Amino acid sequence: MERVCEKDGAFSPEGNVIGTYIHGIFDNDAFRDAFLNFVARRRKKQKRRKRAGRGINWDFEIEKLANFVKRHIDIEKIYEILFS
Fold it and tell me: Residue 72 belongs to what domain range?
């Protein structure tokens, strides 16, 4: 597959594969909505409706993820494998 390179990423000529290294690009609600609406239009789906107050509390989300991981892994077993 041929690709087109831009300053901050690349995309296929058809526009159905894209990539970027811009960290946090989807943190911005307006950008995320515009991007997902673009994808919906390309797939000929109904435009997504914006949801008010969708800001993400990253500290809360990361803490939730950390607690989930702590509950579901055997950290002692991992240490045993790593350090034995």
Answer: 4-83
